[in-house]
Amino acid sequence: MTEADFHRNFPVGAAIPDLLQALLEFQSQKREWYSGYFELDTWAFGNPAWFGGDRNASEQFAVFGHGPDGSLYALWLYEGRSLATAPVVFLGSEGTDCGVIANDLRDFMALLGIGAHELGFEISWGEVSEAGTPAGRLSEFRSWLADCFGISAPSDPLALVRLARENHPDFASWLGAWQESRS
Q1: Looking at the whole model, is its pTM more than 0.90?
Q2: Is 98 helix (H, G, I), strand (E, B) or coil?
Q3: Domain count, the chain
Q4: What is the distance between the alpha carbons of residues 103 and 157, in angstroms, rounded to a whole number?
Q5: pLDDT value at position 81?
């Protein structure tokens, strides 16, 4: 994936956030998993596919990555939030197990450092741990996070998630109301 392709994931005129730009460069070095089955991917800003065609809803999210089943990872750009201050949310492929998972990209990168098989689902289920068979580049990824950004995997990942949910408590109610309006 090129930087230009990835740039389309974000609002017009916005720069790719620095941490995601760096992660794109890291990911592009080798075609091998580095944290479970997470990977950055292209998803044009405002693409309403996950939101059943609802462009107004979709434009509140800058999707930047996905899991193996099509679940999405995105920055939630609710009122007053920019790419720099937006929390990271997980949007389960079937519309379930969704939630705020990190206060910001830095905390999200720390969670990626755990190397969970499917991070978003594991957070939803309340059991986050390194995959039984770690991703091929996990050690390299952890070293890169530490050396370049001073980021390490949290010893209590769910505490990090709880803090994010305390700081951004309205996502579950917003999503529930949106889902209810669609049925």
Answers
A1: yes
A2: coil
A3: 1
A4: 12
A5: 92
